[in-house]
Write a structure and sequence with these properties.
This protein has 15 helices and no strands. Helix content is about 75%, strand content about 0%.
Length: about 325
């Protein structure tokens, strides 16, 4: 946001909202950018999707290159990937139509919830110029509904009806179609006009992520910080899948590090990993202004870092 406010807006006439595209494009990836198309249009920043796809591409390529280089410099030893039994056995004996119906039901329920929230917002805050839920995309709500459905099925003993393989097949196919459609609608004239802004934002995102890894990795992860940090570096620049790939490349025993990395995802992904907070960033900037949004984010960052420092100090004293 600081880059957008101090460099992109005055020098290249780029909308300040573009400052949010690093988080949207890097952590959310191409799918999140494409899913926010209607949000970009509703806040009068339709070219944001084209810029976001360009930035997402920079993040993905940089994550793979930088992550691979750093993986070879860790102390992980020989690369011997451990594959779990669930990964070795592709379960295909579940009804394909059942999985399609479950995913469709999740999307419909999420759409009903979002529509209800939008109607409630219009009714309760009809006189307010601030609109948040009006710009909310569907996918963060669908992620939360899907999580609830998964918990209910597991608790009721019906979790064995679901094939992880087929769910992945459907979700990956849907994501591929979404990305292909978005890239097919890419406006090359926008990329040609704002190529400086795209490169600057991409460079700032890579530099910021790399700086966090090198200067704070050991602070966040006292044990095996180079390996554990690789996963976070890959995720912060090129989605969760790249983070997992980097972890598998960086160590001979990936399951030891993949397990804690995976445990955080149900809480992390629906919120900031291309989830609710990521989606709300765009309407928040449009409603409250870029400077106010930047100050709020700076305060939140300071609180998180300060809270973690306090926790580490208390833990050190107790030991």
């Amino acid at each position: 946001m600081i880059t957008a406010l101090l460099v992109l807006a005055p020098l290249f006439d780029t909308n300040e909202v573009a400052g949010a595209l690093i988080a949207v494009g890097f952590q959310g990836g191409h799918g999140t950018v494409a899913g926010l198309q209607s949000t970009f249009e509703s806040i009068d920043f339709a070219k944001g999707m084209d810029l976001g796809l360009g930035i997402a591409t920079i993040g993905l390529i940089s994550a793979i290159i930088l992550g691979t280089i750093m993986s070879n410099r860790t102390d992980g030893g020989d690369q011997e990937l451990e594959i779990s039994h669930d990964e070795k056995v592709e379960v295909k004996d579940r009804p394909f139509g059942l999985h399609f119906a479950i995913l469709g039901t999740v999307v419909i329920v999420a759409w009903l919830i979002l529509s209800g929230l939008q109607v409630a917002e219009k009714s309760l805050f009809a006189d307010s110029s601030v609109k948040i839920l009006e710009y909310m995309p569907l996918f963060p709500i669908a992620m939360m509904v899907g999580l609830v459905v998964q918990i209910v099925l597991n608790k009721s003993g019906m979790g064995n009806l679901i094939s992880h393989y087929q769910i992945n097949l459907l979700s990956n196919l849907s994501l591929d179609l979404l990305i292909i459609a978005a890239l097919g609608a890419l406006n090359l004239s926008v990329l040609a006009k704002y190529w400086q802004s795209i490169l600057i934002l991409g460079a700032v995102g890579v530099a910021y992520s790399a700086a966090i890894y090198f200067f704070f990795g050991g602070w966040f992860f006292p044990k095996d910080w180079k390996v554990r940090g690789i996963g976070e570096l890959g995720q912060s620049m090129g989605t969760t899948a790249v983070g997992l790939l980097m972890l598998k490349q960086a160590t001979s025993n990936p399951s030891e590090h993949i397990r804690p990395f995976s445990y955080k995802q149900p809480l992390y992904e629906p919120v900031v990993g291309g989830g609710i907070v990521t989606a709300l960033a765009l309407p928040a900037i449009a409603n409250f202004g870029p400077w106010a949004f930047t100050i709020i984010m700076a305060v939140i960052l300071a609180c998180v870092v300060g809270g973690f420092a306090f926790y580490k100090r208390r833990k050190h004293k107790s030991e």
